[in-house]
Amino acid sequence: MIEGILIGLTTALSFKNIFMVMIGCFFGTIIGMLPGLGPMTAIALMIPITYGFDPATGLILMAGVYYGAVFGGSTSSILLNAPGVPGTVATSFDGYPMAQQGKAGKALAIAAWSSFAGGTLSAIYLLFMAPSLSKVSLSFRSPDYFALMILGLTAIAAFSSKGQFLKAMMMVVLGLMLASVGQDSLSDITRFTFDNMNLTDGISFVLVVMSTFAMSEALTIILKRNDPTAAAKQVSLTELGSIKINKEERGKMYRTIPRSSVIGFLIGVLPGAGATIASFLAYGMERNLVKDEEKEKFGKGSVNGLSAPETANNAACSGSFVPMLTLGIPGSGTTAVMLGALLGFGIQPGPRLYMTNPEIFWSVIMSMYIGMVILLILNLPLIPYIARILAVPKNYLIPLILFFSITGIYVMSFNNFDIYLMIGIAVVATFLRLYDFPMPPLILAFVLGGLMEENLRRSLLLSNGSWEFLWDRTLTVCILITTILIVFWHIYKTFTKNKY
Amino acid sequence: MNINTTKVISLLFFIFSAFYLYTAYQIQVFAFDENAPFNAKTFPIYLGYAGLFFSGLKLILPDPDTIKVEHKTLEYKKTALLIVIAIIYGATILKVGYFLTTSLFLFASYYFLGERRWILMFLLSFPFVAGFMYLLHGVLEIYLRDPFLKSIGVMG
Fold this sequence. Notes:
The complex is a heterodimer of chains A (500) and B (156). Chain A is mostly helical. Helix content of chain A is 74%, strand content 1%. The N and C termini of chain A lie far apart (55 Å). Mean pLDDT of chain A is 80; it is low at 231-237. Chain B is built from seven helices and no strands. Chain B has helices at residues 5-26, 42-60, 76-96, 98-112, 118-123, 126-139, 147-151. The model of chain B has no long low-confidence stretch (mean pLDDT 88). Classes of the chains: A mainly alpha (500), B mainly alpha (156). The interface between A and B is large, with 65 and 71 residues.
C-alpha cells in the first residue's frame, strides 16, 4: 500500500496534474454557481477534453471539477437561495438566512473551511479505509436501503421547527407524490401524466428545486416588499460582514466537522446514496446533537447548521469514489458519468484496480487532498467579490434570479411546458411558505422518492409480498429502531410542549 | 368568522390526496402484474393513504400557533404582474428565440419593479444576455435555439 501511495503522490504532484486540479476547481466553481448546471454537467463537458490526456490526469481533472462544482453550488445556495446542486440544498437552510443578516462573507468562509475540512478528512478516511469499506458497502441490501430512506425522511422531523411536524410530513408526502409522476422505472407504465407527453420522463429535480427555492424566494421577497415586519428584520444586504470566524464559531465548527465528515463519508460510500442524503442527514443529526439553545437557531443562520451539510457533502464526494473505484458501482450520478469516462479510457474499475493500475487509484485519492487545498486558496480571497452579488439592488436581483431559474430549466429541456410547470409550482410554494409549510422536506422526499420505491419493490418481490423483510436482517432492524426512536422522541417533545 | 388558513390548506391537501389515491387506483398495470407483490400502482397507493393520514391529522388536531398573514401589506399586484411576464416569456422563448425574449423579460421586470435608470436597465438586459448566451452557446457549447438571431444572420 505504501508503494501505491508513493506512486499516487508522485503522479498527483506532477506540474501537469496540479495544473489540472487548479483548472478543474476553477471551472467547476463557475459552473456550480450557475443554477441548473451541476457537477454532472460540468464533468460531462470535460469528458471530450480528458480523452486527450492519460487516464490519471483525466480523472484528476474531473475530480477537481467535481469539488469545484459542489463548492460553487454552495455559493449560489448561500447568496441567492438557489442551490444549483442537490447536495447543497441543505446548505441554504442556514447559509441563506445568515447572508440575509448581513453575514454573507462569514457564511461563505464557514462553507469554504467546512468544505475543506470535510474533503480533507474524508480523503484521509479514503486513504486508509477504501479497500475494506468496499466490502462493507456490498453488504447493504434493498431492505437496508429502504430503511435508510425512511430514516432520512424521518430526519425531516428534525428539520422542522417547533410545531411543524405534521406540516413537514405533508410536504414529505407531496415530494414523494411529485417524484412518482412519469414512467414507472420497471414496467414503463406512465403514472399521473394525464396523457401529457411532457410528463412522461417525470419532473426534473432542477425544476422542483428552482421553483420551490429560488423562484418562490424571489416571489416572496416581492410579495413582502411592503411588510413592515419583514422590512425591519431585513439588514442591509450591502453589508458583506467580516469573513473572519471568531473563537466561539470556530469552537462550534470543531465539534461539527469531525462527526459530519464521518457521516458524509459513510453515506457517500453507499452506492446510490451520495452527497444529498449525506448533507440532509448531517444537518438533521447536528440539530439533534446541539443544545436546545442552539437548536432554536437552526434555519435562522446557525453556524452548526451551515457547517454540517457543507462538511458532509464534500466528505460524501470523496466517499462516493470508494464504490466507483473499488467495485465499479457509482455512488452518485456524477460518479456514474466519471465511471463512463473511465470505461472510455479502457479501464475497468473493480476490486483489482488498485493492484493493476495503482497510479490511477492512488493518484486520484492524493489529488483529492491537493484539490481541497487549491479550492480553499482559490476561493477564500474571492469571497468579498463573490458576496457582492447581494449588494445588487432587489429591482435587479429578483429578475436576475428569475432569469437564472428559467434559463436553468430551459437549457435542460427546451420546452415551454417545463417553464409553465416551474411557475405553477413556484406560485404554490410561495403560498405554502407564507403559512410556514417547510420546503426542505419536500425536496428531500423528491430526491429519495425513486430510490425508495425501487428498494421497496426489490424488498417486497424478494420476500414474496411479505413485509417480513423489515425485521429479517439485523442491519435493517437497527436502522428502523433508530427511526422509531427519532419519531417517539419528537412526539414526546411535541406533546410536552403542547404543539402539533 | 376567522378561517384558519392552515386548516384550509390541510383540507385542500386532503382532497388532493384523495384525488391522487383515486388516480393511483386507476393506473393500468399489465395483466400478469395485476397480482404481483409490487406493481406500478403499489407505491402511489401507499402515498395516497399517507397524504390522507397526515392532512387528516392536521385537520382534526388543534392548531395552537395560528399564523396570521397581513394581506394588506402584501404586494399582490406586482407579484402577479411578474408571474404574467414570466408566463409570456415562457410562451415566446421557443418561437422568438432566447436572446430577444430573455432581454425583454429582464427589461420589463426591472421596469415593473420600479426601476427607471434606463441605461443600467439596458446594460443589464441586452448586453448581459448576449454575454451569458456567449458563455452557454459559444464556450460551453450548449445549443440555444434562436429563430430571431438566425433570421438576422447572427446565428447559424
